[in-house]
Amino acid sequence: MRIIFKTDYMQDIRPWKDGYQLSLYLILLAVMIAAPWWLDMFYLGELTNVLVWAIAGLGLMILTGHTGQASLGHAAFLAIGCYANVILLEAGVPFLLAFPLAGILTGVIGATIAIPALRLHGIYLAIFTLALSILMDDIIVLAEPITGGVAGKFISGVDIFGLTIDRWGTPTYFYWLVLVVTVLVTLGYINLLRAPLGRSFIAVRDSEVSAQAMGVDIARTKTISFGISCAVTGWAGALMGLYAGAFNNETFSVVISIQLLMMIVIGGLGSIHGAFFGAIVIGFLPQFLSISKEYVGALFGGDTVAIPGLEFGVFGMILIAFILFEPMGIYGRWLKIRTFFELFPFYRKDMFKRQKSYLKTERLR
């Protein structure tokens, strides 16, 4: 059993517990940087897709996982970030300027929408954001001169310091671009949670009454959380557009919003790791099912048959299984396993037992 004896307040708020944990993260980063040398192009593309989904999951995690505000409309902000990035690029703005501006613009729009939206709570807020995601489809079609309407838009690649980065032409460079964005967003998220603003998010999530009693401005905190969440989601949308190459109003459907929410629930609400675990499930599940069907077909001597809705059916069963047996998600299960080995033989099963009763005043009305 390893015990960390803290002698300084800075030790309590640093991004990693100790040098051992830091070394593990650095090893993981080195493996990810070297991925193009040990993965073929197909799996490198799938890994790139996972990282893009992880950025989108981090965006929603800020709002839902750490501020406690349910959203089923983040596909709309993926679309805003994607179209804003492409429109700025078409206007001649360099990518290194267009990409950050796309996220900032998405964040400003999200914060503006949040001012009336966050007067709602729980299921009503989820319905409002769901309606927003559905409405975005019509907005893209109606704004055809800008968005291309049903025909959509096409982008082949971007230039950074004279180097062409294209999803299909130079997949290695595109992977490294997505990896850099993922690392920067993750580091920013970690430092946000260490700051007073991030602690205000968690306070609002746990108890709005208690947070207000401690001087937290509830409306301001929720609005900022919505804005930051939408900004990160906008960056993910911009990368999704570059990854897909071509997109239209149907690319960012309401199904994407539902997938995002289920992704962070399966990965583990309220944890940065949960966004990555959920993205792995989302990214690799379609390929796993495809390979499994081919294997089953070869094993039983038959052709593989496409089963409509198989992917969502399996994903739904996975979600139900986690809600019933592991509400803390994949990361929660990993925490229990790690704690078991760290505290063995003193581990108690009730350590992770959920509180059964809650105050009726946990949410302001």
UniProtKB/TrEMBL annotation:
<dbReference type="Pfam" id="PF02653">
    <property type="entry name" value="BPD_transp_2"/>
</dbReference>
<dbReference type="GO" id="GO:0015658">
    <property type="term" value="F:branched-chain amino acid transmembrane transporter activity"/>
</dbReference>
<dbReference type="InterPro" id="IPR043428">
    <property type="entry name" value="LivM-like"/>
</dbReference>
<feature type="transmembrane region" description="Helical">
    <location>
        <begin position="252"/>
        <end position="285"/>
    </location>
</feature>
<feature type="transmembrane region" description="Helical">
    <location>
        <begin position="44"/>
        <end position="63"/>
    </location>
</feature>
<dbReference type="GO" id="GO:0005886">
    <property type="term" value="C:plasma membrane"/>
</dbReference>
<feature type="transmembrane region" description="Helical">
    <location>
        <begin position="95"/>
        <end position="115"/>
    </location>
</feature>
<keyword id="KW-1133">Transmembrane helix</keyword>
<feature type="transmembrane region" description="Helical">
    <location>
        <begin position="224"/>
        <end position="246"/>
    </location>
</feature>
<protein>
    <submittedName>
        <fullName>ABC transporter permease</fullName>
    </submittedName>
</protein>
<feature type="transmembrane region" description="Helical">
    <location>
        <begin position="173"/>
        <end position="192"/>
    </location>
</feature>
<dbReference type="InterPro" id="IPR001851">
    <property type="entry name" value="ABC_transp_permease"/>
</dbReference>
<keyword id="KW-0472">Membrane</keyword>
<feature type="transmembrane region" description="Helical">
    <location>
        <begin position="305"/>
        <end position="325"/>
    </location>
</feature>
<keyword id="KW-0812">Transmembrane</keyword>
<keyword id="KW-1003">Cell membrane</keyword>
<feature type="transmembrane region" description="Helical">
    <location>
        <begin position="70"/>
        <end position="89"/>
    </location>
</feature>
<feature type="transmembrane region" description="Helical">
    <location>
        <begin position="122"/>
        <end position="143"/>
    </location>
</feature>
<feature type="transmembrane region" description="Helical">
    <location>
        <begin position="20"/>
        <end position="38"/>
    </location>
</feature>
